[in-house]
Amino acid sequence: APPAGAAAAVARALAPPPLRSSPQLNADGTPKVVVKESQPEKLSLKQQARRAAEEKEARDRAEKKRQRLETLEKIKKDNHARKHDENWSTTEGVQKGGKDINTFRGKYGEDKGG
Asked: Which of 51, 82, 108, 113 has the most crowded Cβ, counting Cβ within 10 A?
């Protein structure tokens, strides 16, 4: 049998690296938006506008993703409540839209259409 020191060295070599908490996340778990700063005086107005548009698009994407995750969480809660609560009703964020589908037949009746 190999000595304990060699076995320990092999075990350390084969073990996966320890997981590190990512410094790229905010306290609430949302990703930090990292923008590479360059010297703005060297950028043309067109480049500055393009960069501002890219930053805005990245913020919008992150916000939309956060909203989708919130909606999914509400759906999961509603699904659990629907299955386990006899007095269940939907939460406000996940209800269907209040707009009624108005069909031709519904509007004019069966015989008035033509």
From this structure: 51
Bridge partners, 50 (sequence order): none
Judged on CB neighbours under 10 Å (0-12, 13-18, 19+), 75 is middle
* Phi/psi of residue 31, nearest 5 degrees: -70, 140
List per-residue pLDDT tens for the chain, 114 residues long: 455 677 777 777 777 666 555 567 777 777 777 666 655 468 899 999 999 999 999 999 999 999 999 999 998 988 888 888 887 766 655 555 555 667 777 777 777 655
Residue 54 CA to residue 110 CA, distance in Å, equals: 53
The pTM for the full model equals: 0.41
